[in-house]
Write a structure and sequence with these properties.
By secondary structure, the chain is α/β, with parallel strands linked by helices. The chain contains five helices and seven strands; from the N terminus they run βαββαββααβαβ. The chain has a single domain, classed as Rossmann fold (3-Layer(aba) Sandwich). The C terminus is likely disordered.
């Protein structure tokens, strides 16, 4: 199973997926069957994660036309709609990687996107207030999806589990 955060940390809310994967890594213990991946802006390079995962959870910002900070949970064939409007260079690669994996018959058996409606995509390393506020709910949603997939997810104890969305940690 793969949890894939995508986005550009240098472009504000576009880094939402990376912030989310880093927060999941800090706050929870993971079994060896789960890979948490910072996919950055790898574009078609993301295909390798699509091809090897039985279950793939993608965390990203997604322009769904909703209020900034609104979260969407899309499954399987619902995903292409989330990428109808390219927000950044990586958005040009993930839909094509999904299409290519589908064409090759290599899509994961389970595919889920948790996407956050961005408030702003402009230079900066901090999430906007609406996305920073949405991050805890996105993490809970991710953990819920993974638990439905049979993953034993346990919170970490101690000081390493906290941190802010903009900490880059």
């Amino acid at each position: 199973m793969v949890v894939l955060g995508t986005g550009n940390l240098l472009m504000g809310d576009d880094g939402f997926g990376i912030h989310a994967v880093r927060a999941l890594r800090r706050r929870y213990r993971w079994p060896p069957t789960v890979e948490l991946v910072d996919g950055g802006t790898d574009g078609l390079g993301l295909l390798r994660w699509l091809e090897r995962a039985s279950h793939l959870l993608i965390l990203d910002c997604a322009d769904t036309g909703a209020q900034p900070g609104a979260l969407a949970c899309l499954k399987g064939d619902e995903l292409p709609a989330a990428f109808a409007t390219a927000l950044s260079p990586h958005a040009l690669g993930l839909p094509e990687a999904l299409a290519l994996a589908r064409w090759q018959g290599a899509l994961p058996e389970e595919l889920v996107l948790i996407g956050a409606q961005p408030a702003t995509v402009r230079p900066g390393m901090e999430l906007s207030p609406p996305l920073a506020a949405a991050l805890p709910l996105a993490l809970r949603m991710a953990v819920e999806v993974l638990r439905r997939w049979g993953v034993a997810v346990h919170p970490r104890e101690g000081p390493g589990k906290g941190g802010t969305a903009g900490a880059g940690g």
